[in-house]
Design brief:
There is one protein chain. The chain is an alpha/beta fold and 226 residues long. The chain has eight helices and eight strands. Strands 1, 2, 3, 4, 5 and 6 form a six-stranded mixed beta sheet that branches. A two-stranded antiparallel ribbon has the order 7-8. A hairpin with a 5-residue loop joins strand 2 and strand 3. The two termini are 44 Å apart.
């Protein structure tokens, strides 16, 4: 299961036991039905724990790749069509899709925090379809231990002063894409033909309580706009 399946389940099982037993040929030891029943008893948290242990070993012992000393991390979200079952429909809901919105599917929102050079997933999140990518990113931030030289890459869908403030206060460097009309300071840069500028912003009042609840100082921050 951890290495990924590329053939039928029974062939994978036969191959696995042949390798474990150092046999010269595949042996029929366990049926695919037995594996299916056993797999249902596994807790999903086990896979997250295994991934975290693999990540810890990799970054401590392997010569992992970096860009100018930075570990390049990227976060992005997408959607996933789930099997139609009463349990998944109750948890994630049913939504209408298609050109005429006449196709019903059980759909979830997914998000990955990914090391783009070393091809490792630091954290994954699964939520309801109505959950925003920003909300899932908040879960990533709570679940991930960042390194001093991490650089987080984010698309324009994540842009927000509150998020910039939180990342800076947590010591996470970031590069975030913005639209040209998103921020007054950006519009002024474009109008003046400036290519880069250090911008200091004050956290708006509506976000101060949010930061206080997270234990994050609500003070002025500076960002380099390019």
């Amino acid at each position: 299961m951890s290495k990924g399946l590329t053939r039928s389940l029974q062939r994978e099982l036969n191959s696995f036991f042949a390798e474990v037993q150092e046999a010269d040929y595949s042996v029929f030891e366990v049926t695919k039905s037995a594996l299916t029943h056993a797999r249902r008893k596994l807790k999903p948290e086990a896979f997250k724990e295994l991934n975290q242990e693999a990540l810890r070993t990799f970054y401590e012992e392997a010569p992992w790749l970096n860009w100018r000393g930075h570990r390049l991390l990227a976060c992005d979200g997408s959607t996933m069509v789930l099997p139609r079952h009463p349990t998944t429909e109750e948890e994630f809901g049913v939504h209408e899709f298609g050109s005429k919105a006449d196709s019903e599917n059980c759909i979830a929102r997914i998000s990955l925090l990914y090391d783009v050079l070393n091809l490792t997933t630091l954290d994954s999140q699964l939520g309801k379809y109505i959950t925003s990518e920003r909300e899932l990113l908040e879960n990533h931030l709570a679940q991930t231990t960042f390194k001093n030289q991490d650089l987080l890459l984010l698309d324009r869908g994540y842009a927000g002063i509150a998020l910039m403030h939180e990342l800076q206060q947590k010591g996470v460097d970031f590069c975030m894409r913005l639209t040209d009309n998103w921020w007054k300071a950006i519009r002024e840069m474009i109008e003046k033909g400036e290519k880069d500028k250090l911008v200091t912003f004050k956290l708006p009042a509506q976000y101060r309580k949010q930061m206080e609840l997270k234990g994050i100082p609500a003070k002025n921050c500076s960002c380099l706009a390019v």
